[in-house]
Structures are given as structure tokens and as C-alpha cells.
Amino acid sequence: MKFDFSDDQKLLQQTVRDFLAGECAPDAVRALWSTETGRSRALWKQLAEVGLVGLLVPDSHEGMGLSEVDFVLLCEEVGRAALAEPVIATAAVGAPLVAELGGDLAARWLKPLAVGEAIVAVGHPVSPFVDDAHVADLLLLERDGELHAVAPGSARLTAQPHTDPARRIAAVEFDPRSETCVASGAQARHLLDSALDRGALAAAAQLIGVCDRLVALAVAYTTQRVQFGVPIGSFQAVKHALADVKVKLEYARPLVYRAADSVARGIAQRSVHVSMAKVAAAEAAQRGARAALQAHGAIGYTWEQDVHIWMRRAWSLDQMWGIQRFHRARMAAFALAPDAPLGAGRTFI
Amino acid sequence: MKFDFSDDQKLLQQTVRDFLAGECAPDAVRALWSTETGRSRALWKQLAEVGLVGLLVPDSHEGMGLSEVDFVLLCEEVGRAALAEPVIATAAVGAPLVAELGGDLAARWLKPLAVGEAIVAVGHPVSPFVDDAHVADLLLLERDGELHAVAPGSARLTAQPHTDPARRIAAVEFDPRSETCVASGAQARHLLDSALDRGALAAAAQLIGVCDRLVALAVAYTTQRVQFGVPIGSFQAVKHALADVKVKLEYARPLVYRAADSVARGIAQRSVHVSMAKVAAAEAAQRGARAALQAHGAIGYTWEQDVHIWMRRAWSLDQMWGIQRFHRARMAAFALAPDAPLGAGRTFI
Amino acid sequence: MDLSYTPQQDAFRAEVRAWLRAHVPAHPLPSFDTREGFEAHRRWERELNQGGYAMVPWPVEYGGRGADLLEWLIFEEEYYAAGAPKRVNQNGIFLLGPTIMEYGTREQKTRFLPRMAASDEIWAQGWSEPNAGSDMANIQATAVRDSGDYVINGQKTWASRGAFADWLFGMFRTDPNTERHRGLTFILVPLSLPGVTVRPIDQLDGLPGFAEVFLDDVRVPVENRLGGEGQGWQVAMATAGFERGLMLRSPARFQETARRLIALYRAHRESADSAIADIAVDCWSQAEAYALETYRTVSRLLGGAKIGSEASLNKIFWSELDLRMHETALRILEERGQLLPEASAAGDVGTWLDGYLFALSGPIYAGTNEIQRNIIAERILGMPR
Amino acid sequence: MDLSYTPQQDAFRAEVRAWLRAHVPAHPLPSFDTREGFEAHRRWERELNQGGYAMVPWPVEYGGRGADLLEWLIFEEEYYAAGAPKRVNQNGIFLLGPTIMEYGTREQKTRFLPRMAASDEIWAQGWSEPNAGSDMANIQATAVRDSGDYVINGQKTWASRGAFADWLFGMFRTDPNTERHRGLTFILVPLSLPGVTVRPIDQLDGLPGFAEVFLDDVRVPVENRLGGEGQGWQVAMATAGFERGLMLRSPARFQETARRLIALYRAHRESADSAIADIAVDCWSQAEAYALETYRTVSRLLGGAKIGSEASLNKIFWSELDLRMHETALRILEERGQLLPEASAAGDVGTWLDGYLFALSGPIYAGTNEIQRNIIAERILGMPR
Asked: Which residue in chain B is spatially nearest to A239 when comparing CA positions?
């Protein structure tokens, strides 16, 4: 029993944090907001070099062959930096899905995906829209329980502008044909379930990073902003609001880390663990967004102040890979079952 | 349009407040807790003399012939004093019900009820228990949609000890006979509806008084209690918690006063207005109880400190004449109907 | 207690309703935080004025209807129920106008009120400065007397409507040896003057709902002073006082939002989370409570009562309710709730997102809710400072 | 990361489970806040001790099992899952005992630990005074050295278990010229001594869960001092430190409450408000989060990390969760939830009300949640004082 990350895992986290602090500062995030795609192939390639992109890809295909436990801390950093590249679409979900599909598809795509030369987007029934489809080289799309591999050119994308300028989604139409079908029946169901677990886990981990950053921004601002002759951060109302967010955050964190382990080990309850993580992380981040905005006052209400970068990330990640209602329903189905293993001593059994 | 009480109404409120401050101080409340009945016939007679008991009884039967608008401010004072006599059972609900039943029953009971010489308790399907049945001279009990007038001697009472020592309730069994039936069918339904409206309105108004007192207790304590060299009431955390209760309280109040007017005038939406009032007042009082307890710290957690007198009143009144869920369901049935008159300009129309 | 309208009030309501039905634009105007929308709203204000509905609560002598607060509530109810445009001229008509009537000289009334009524001059608020936000008395912008002029230097910020407005009102420190509430003077400043630089600030919706205004040796004649020199705080308190606040936050707005929320829930009741129904109904009940409390307050005001710190209860209640209603709507809308109005999948839901962004400002502007809670605790509950 | 137990840990769990199954009383003991219940719980402590389970985390040399924190968590899980009695001896075994091991002399260890283990001496906490509650350093009770004795005067309050306990531990001011944290000394006081008056204080459940202790020229030998003179604060911080707190608030308690809450909901699912299901499930998830975070903390402690102010996060989380679970249960129980256990209509629901009353103390004792929020903001987030 050791519920902690290894030194290597923490070191990789620090490396990614440092890299993103340099390459994905708020100005860079804003610069990408105003581009047509909102994405940067150059940045994506760099991210691949740091190891973020191919982490879950087997090393036989130029990936790192690591697990979700290794990946989860990096996702946290992605959230902390408000990085908007297709980390979830490709690194967390798409590439592992291609690996699981195997065969020609994996042979054709896995290596370019792992090294950041190709992007895959995944259309999953949990959401009406597809993230990052507009920059994808390969679309994996569900239709009537089947999974189809579709070239972007043969799908019709309608971009859906979103309140988070970093989120780029589209409604995607395509004509499923037998040649495009890459999985069906039980296999497709299994693959879609895995995709959902990985996607929601990655979103949850990003939300942890987002919430942490929101608290940090609010603490920094209220420590330097003086009113009535004192820093406003010395007022109990400001302190307690942020303390409450911190409590939520620190008790969402273990759920996220546990979910990562459950997905990595493929244990039976992994989907429930992911849902618990996603809900707790989303709630913490929503609370963090409200508290950070309020702590900033009028300046936080401006476009030019940075706090809304993470506020919008909190909103959009909350809806990625399953809204809270979806995940709460999965939790309820588990916990309210007659034979649910609840109570003391059942946590790890 | 005048949404305010008359000077006479305010004067009567002040009279009752002064009377209760003298006769129903916390020590007197505690003294009654430890008696077998928890009620005092002598106090009840005095309350009748102040006008509280027979206020809604027609003046033809020695009552004051006034309306729920006159009564509501007095109920607030009853809550403020944590007075536990059968104000709701007899003054708010039972006596008006006897008056509506009329005939021999009214001839026999109305005057003694109005002058405080008799007590009536009402068993209503909204609750599994009957308040104040143990001291009643007359029981009006619902069974299968019929209303029965039952002598206490021919009913079987099982007292149900309650966490609020001031609340005295019993499970009541009796044998309905045709001689005991005083109303049935549509008439009984109508009478039971009226009883519920009056009971819930009186409970809501008491909750306003209870909440007001809880805030006052907390303000008084935190103003004199010094820690870290300053009154703890100077800490923002303490201030803001009580300010939030005050907001809830002051926006429950108009709902309660409006409901009183609606019941007095018998307007079509009176039941919905009563439910809105009861829910809002109960929520304010629950919040008030939590905040007041917390503001008192350990001393509030003792039996000897007075704050729990009102905390328990907040709990028990919340459940009298309809728990929140019941009232919320009535509100929803109204507001979610396809033709519900919602929106600006419909409040008084 | 008499919770019914007089025949005169019913008639007024009917008249307002009929006029609005005939005049409210069929399609929503563009946001008044765009140049185009600002001018469209100015035209609407002029149309209101021609109909006699621009300055409903102003005395008849200034071109208003002399409506009392009850009639004002009725007007607002009809105005919101009709879905009429937002009031771009509200800083003038509801805040500055009545203050000029109270503190202005005859010349000032003649100079400012007619052009305000005609929406020829639209006003920006200039309450805040970079170091005077919650701490509103910490004003540092100065106005130095130089023969017949004040020479103004400093910076105002969060000036609502500032991006496109014609004039700004605000307080300036005329006595350099004073601190806080003393030594401030209320001055009216044309934004077209040399030395004035307006920097529009984009809000969360990406539009410049407020502005920073830099004042660099700006000369305004002494005649632009409202009230006496050093009397600025008193004039400002009248401007920001309770009745004015009531005019800006009449219950009708929240009642209409509650109505739309219930309708939204009903439209999605098959798919929506059942707990949402309780929340939506509770919001409706709270909006009714807000309306009732407003009528009660107006009754007490008309009966001669004074209302002071109660405005802080009011502020917290409506701002939290407004936020809760919009949050609930977005929950009902699920993935569509976060789409911008122009998204093809957004359909007609986009206004809820805009409303949510606006609602987020509620607990911040006009005194943060933290400041309001202090006021409630200290001035209403009497807790120690 | 390795989220599995070793075979040794599994074996320990099985052993504990088997012993508890054989020994836990079939019927709940009366509350230990009654004389009868106190003695019944003392007998249970002795039974635990005979079984070798009274002092699980104590080192073997003192009669314990030398269990590490992980084994302690396992023991607690089984203890709560078995529905075993509350620990009347916890002030001694989990708070004072380890402090004596750390700060006590050899004589003190010999004198106090065996009788503590045998429950011959049960301890009351004496942290608070009338003017030293949240402001814990404001202690005024004095201990004046008089040859080989300390002569103690003053008053302690909220002494938990004080009504029936044998001894009390607490801090006293030995240097009259000091203030706050300095000049305090940690002293052990027999409650049977002349000059000691114990006034039991009834709590919200009507039972004396704590007491006031008046000390009037009470003489205790210098040998009853734990740690050096003037070192009291340091000794107290060790006693109230994080690991001890963790022992008192192990997650098992909250996980079992969550399990019972879900079962209660399921038993009432036909009648219960549908929103309740979401709340109950959320509570269960939070109890799991609390358990996970505890395991994570223990992993870090075992890996050599230091844990300090994080205890404040912990306090807020469990106390709010506990309250929410009990509130939710009472909502499910509707009218029956407020009945006392002896009411005929209460059936088996009465324990939820008792649990609710107890849960209400959570945000108050062991440092109010307001104090904890200050600590989080200032020491964890680094916000200005």
C-alpha cells in the first residue's frame, strides 16, 4: 500500500510544468484564442518531445508505453497552464484507442500520433460535439454502436463557437460505410467505455490543475490589492471563501489519483472511480472559478485580466467527456445497487 | 395598494410581545419543559385575555372576530418567545374549524375555546401525529376523508417524545362512528384544506419570530464574547454568516405576510402562497439555527445555554403542518402547470 | 393591508401595455456595448421619450409623468413583460437626473435635463478609481480651481457605458488636504474635451461595457459642479441612494427571468434532472418574495418611512437569485448552454449564457456582496466593527 | 503507487475481524455520558485490552501492538464495520499516552501507562477555559511552585469525559509574568483531590458529555508535570498534533455513516425526494475521498513527509460531511427523524437524531471551523494575516 507517486513521476510533472510555464504562458494562450484553429502544430510537436503526447502509446510505436498513473499528473499541469491543444482528444483518448484497435489502423497512425505529427479526434455518444475535429488527421466516430475511422475530408464539420475560446468543437456528420467501420458490437462497446474513462479522467485531472491555478491567482491578487489600507486578502470573507475551495480541491485530488490507478490497472470499478473523480474535480473547479472571480472584483470581470482564462476552462472541462449529471448517474447506479460494496474497509477491495 | 400593517395591528403585536417577554421568558419555557403536560392552563387563560386565543373566533362567540392578517404578527411573537401552548392547534386551526363546522359543536365549544377555557387539537392527514392532543378537551380527527369530533376519553393517545421538549405530540387512535362524524366529502375536504392553510401559516409566522430571535441571540453573544482581545462579533466570518441569515429572514417575511392576506381574503391561490411562506420561513429558521449555534461555539452546545430553545423550535415548527417537501410539491404543482400565471405583473393579479 | 391596485393604476398599466405592444422592436436590438447597438438603443430611448415613457418617474415639470414608486413598479412590470430593450440612458434618467433636480441650479436643470430626456447626452458613471473600488472614499483624482474652471487630473475606471457615452459624472478631490469622504466635489465632465482619453474595457462577454477614463489637465467650467464644493459625498449618496437603486433593480427583471426559467425547465422536463424542478420553483418563489418585499418597501416609503441600509439586503438577495437562476438554466441546457448565440446548435438558448455572464457581475458591482454583508452586520444587526 | 494490501495486512484484518465478531456486545452499550454507560464502556476497554486490541498503535514495550498507521486504519475499519462501542478511553490511549511516551520520565511511564492501558484511570481533556476557547493560548489557570508541589488555581471547561473521568490533563500558567504561549506547563491532575470541583455540563442531548473543573488550591506533586516547566505549549501541540487527530477521526466512522445513509435511502426510496439520492451518493463519494486522502497522507507520513496545517483541511471536510450525512438522513426520515429513541413510532431511527446532535458539535470542537479556515488561508495558502 503506497498511495503516492514515484520520484520519476513527480520529476516528469515538474518538467512539463516548467515547459508549459515557458511555452504556454497566458499571452500564448490568448494568442491562440485569436487564431482560426486555436491550435499550434509547432507547440504540439514540442509537447510530443516533452513526452506528453505519446505517453500512453506503446513503446513499440515510438510512444513511452507508460500508464494513466504517469499521465494524470501531466494532465494536471495541462490544466494549470490552460493548454488547449488536443491533449485529451489525441494523447488521452485517441492514441490509446488506435492502439487498442490495432491492425492496419495502428500501423498507419500510431507512430505519427505518438510523435505529434498527426492528430486524432474522437466522436463519442457521451457528447453531441467532437472536440478538435477541425485539426484532426483522423476521426474516430461512433454511430449506432459502431466505431468508424473517417478521413476528415469525408466528414462535414460545423464549428460550434463556445464561450471558452480555447475549446474548439464541431457537430460532425458523416456517412458510415462498412469500409469505415473498425469495431462493432461488444468490442466497440468496450472500446467506447475505455475511451470515456480515459477522457473523463484526463478532464478531471485538468480540472484539478485549473482549480489550483484559480486559487493561486486569487491568492496572488488579494495579497497585493490594497483597499481600506490593507491587502484585501487579509479580510476573513476573502480568506474563508478561498479556504473552502482549497478543501474541495484537496479532497477531489485523491479521487482523481485513485481513478488513474484504477484505469491503469483496469479494475472492475474503474468507471465509477472515474465518475467520482470527474464530479469532485468539476465541483471544486466551479467553486474555484466563482471564488476567484469574486476575489478579483471588477478587474476579474474584464477580458484583459487572466482569471477568466481558467474560469472558462473550468466551465468547458466540466462538460467534456460527460457532464456531471451523467457521471452522478453512474455513481448512483453503483452505490444504490443492493449488493454495493459500501462501508469501512471496502475502499481498496 | 398598501402592503403594511395598520397601527392597531402593530400595537397589538407590541402588547403581545411585552406580555410574552414577561410571562414567557426562557426560564418559564424551561420550567414547562419539565412538567408532565408541558402546558399551563393558567398561562393559556392569560393568553386568551391578551386576545391571542380567540382572535379568529367570531365576536358572536366571545372572540375578537379578526383575521389572519391581524393574527400573523402575533404568531411571530409566539415564535420569538418560544411559547409552546396550543396556539396553532387551538387558536390558529381548531377554533376557526369549530366555527366553520357551526351547529351544536360551535354552540358547545366556541365560547370556551375563545376565552381559553377549552383546548381543541386537530389530527390532519398532513402529519402522522397530533400536537397537543394530551391537553385537549376536544379532538377533531380526520379518518378516510371524514372529520370526527371525539372526546379525549374515547381516543387512545401514545405520546411520542420529541427532540423539542416543547413539542408534545401523540399518535392517536380512535373508533370512528357515525355519531362522531361532523363533516365528510367535499365539505370535509374544504375544511381540512382551510385548516392546513391556517396551521401552516401560523407555523410560518412563528418561524419568522424564531429566526429573528436566533439572530438576536447570536448578535448579543458575539458582541460581548471576547477572544483574541476583540468581540468575536467583529470577525467577518461571524458577521457574514449572520448577515446571510438576515437576508433569508427578511425575504421570507413578505411571503408570510402576503400569505396571511391571501388566507384572510380567501383568494384562489392562498394554499400556494402559504406553502411559499412556510418553505421560506423554515429555510430561514434552519439557517438561523445553524448560524446561531455555530456563533455560540461550545457554550451553545450546552443544555443550559438558551440558544437551543429556539433551535429546537426551528426544527419542530419546520415539520408542523407540512414538511418542506409537502409544501414544495404544492408550489411545483402550481408553478409548473402549463397555464401558471408567472412573470412580471402577476404578483397581485 | 390592501394588496390590490386602484382603477387608476390598472388603467395606467393597460395604457403602458398597449403602447409597448405597439412600439417594442420585434427583434432584439444589438448589445448597447457596441457602437451600433448603443445608437440603436439611443433611438429607442428617443422613441420612449416621444411616447412619454422615457422619464416615467420624473416630475411633470421636467417632462416626466410624475409617477410615484408604485406606478414605476407597474411600468417596469409591463416593460419587462414586453421584452423591451435595456435602458442605455439609465445613468442619466434614474441616477443623475433626480440628483440634478435635487442639487442643481436652475441653469443646470435647464442645461442638462432636456438633453438628457432627449438622449442627446448619454451619461457614464464615474464612481471608481484604480485605488477606490470597494474603498469608494479613497478617491485621488483632483480638480483644482483655476479662476472660472476646474482643472481635472486623474483616472476613473469601471465607468459603465463609458465607451460610447457623451458625459461622465463623478467625484473629484478639490481640497488636497483632505482624506476620504471630505473634500470631494461632484463634477460633470464632457467626454469630448481635450485631455480626456477613454479606454474602453472589454468585459467577460468581450464587449466594452465599461471604460477607463484618463483625465489630463481637463478644464471644465465651475458651472459643471453639482452641489457645493466639498459636498460631493453627500451628492453622491443621493445619487446612489435607495430609491434610485430600487429604480434600477425593480423586481420585474427577476420575475421574468424566473418565468423563462420555469418555461425552460418545462421544455426540458423529460431530460432534466428532477432536482432541477425544485430549484426552478424555489427561484420563482424567491423572485416573488423580491417583488413582494419591494411593494412592502414602497408602501413604507409612501407612508413616510426612511429606508437606508436595507438596500444591502436587497443587493445580496437579487444578485444571488439572478446568478442561481442563470446557473440553473445552464444546467438544464447541458452542452448547449455554453455555446455562443451564433453556434448553429445553440438555437435560441444563447441568451442564457449572456445572462449568466451578466449575472456574474451582480455580486461585484454597486458594492460587492462582501461589503454589503459588512453593512448588514454592522448597521442593521449592530455588530461591532 | 500501489493500492493493495500486503498479505500481512490482510491477515491482521482477518484476525481483528474474527476477534471483534466474537467480542463486540450484541446490544449497544448505554451512552458513556452516563455513569452506568461510562462504567460499561470501561469494562469494554478492559475486554479490548485483554484481547490485545486496546492500544493497537502503542509500541510493544508498552503493551501495544506497535501497529503502524496503515494497520491502525485497518483496525479502525474493522472496528467501525463491526459496530463496536465508542472509545471512552481515547483521551488517554490516543492523546495523552503517546505524549507521555514522548515527554514522560521513566517513572511517569511506569506510573501512568499501565493504569491507562488497564482503564483503571480514564482521562479528561482540559484544553479550554472560559476565556480560552478559540483563543487557546489565553490560559489563565495558574500553577504556583511550592516546594515539591504545584498549587493550582483556576477553571477548565468543556473537559470532555470530565463528568466521570479519574484524571485530567491540561496546561497551567506557571510563570505569572508571561502571556499567551509562553510560561505554560503541562500538568496531570487527579480529579479526586481536595479542592477539585467537577461540574458536569449537559450537552444538547441532555447528557453531561463535558464538565467544568474548578481548581481551588489544588496541590499536585511536581512529578505530575509532563515535560519541562514552561514547555507546556510544545507538549500540548504534540498531544493535539496531526497523527493523533488522525487516530481520532479515522475515515471508517464516516464510511460507515455513508453506508447506513445509503441503506436508509434505499429503505425509503419509494417515498423519498428524488434529489436525496444524489445527495446520499455524493456523501458516499466524499466519505471515500476522505478515506483515500487519509491513506495518501499516511503513505506520505510513512515516506518521511511532515504534515502540519493540512489537519485543518481534514477537520473542515469531515465535520461538514458528517453534518450533511445526518441532515440528509433526517430529511429522509421526515416526521420520525425528530422523535427521541424511546418514542414508539421512532422504531430504529433514533440513532440518526443522536448522531445529528453529535455532528453539530463537529464544526465547533477541536478548533472551530472558522479558526481552521484562517489556518488554511494563512498557513497553507499564504494569505496575509
From this structure: B237
